[in-house]
Design a protein that fits this description.
87% of the residues lie in helices and 0% in strands. It has a domain at 64-131. The chain starts with a helix and ends with a helix. The chain is an all-alpha fold. InterPro entries: Huntingtin-int_K, HYPK_UBA, NAC-like_UBA. Residues 20-30 have a biased composition (Gly residues). It comes from Nyctiprogne leucopyga.
């Protein structure tokens, strides 16, 4: 079982190391043992860093694509909204209808006006929708 002993040794070293540096007194012995392992982990870290960087690049390009897609969709929605607002603005509504809805539903003038316009100025339909 030579292999087992070697493994045990490594584990022992790992355990004593933090105590050695923590004590601060005898640094020399601990440091010598540290060196070879530091090199190994350094190489591994470097690999990890490059993997990470590549992943990040992929993610950011995906993000850019997603953002432009979202942007397109947003501007389309914005256009549709503007068209709708234009249509709604054309609808003629009566001031008394507006005030009725505001009083009945206790909502702001803007909200009352909007629901009236959405129902083509039909105060009854607007009220029905608001009560639902």
């Amino acid at each position: 079982g030579g292999g087992m002993a070697a493994e045990g040794d490594v584990e022992l070293e790992l355990e004593t190391e933090p105590n050695g540096s923590g004590g601060g007194g005898d640094g020399a012995g601990g440091r010598a043992a540290e060196k070879p392992r530091k090199h190994d982990s350094g190489a591994a870290d470097l690999e990890r860093v490059t993997d990470y960087a590549e992943e990040k690049e992929i993610q950011s390009s995906n993000l850019e694509t997603a953002m432009s897609v979202i942007g397109d969709r947003r501007s389309r929605e914005q256009k549709a909204k503007q068209e709708r607002e234009k249509e709604l603005a054309k609808v003629t509504i009566k001031k008394e209808d507006l005030e009725l809805i505001m009083t009945e539903m206790e909502i702001s003038r803007a909200a009352a006006e909007r629901s009236l316009r959405e129902h083509m100025g039909n105060v009854v339909e607007a009220l029905i929708t608001l009560t639902n």
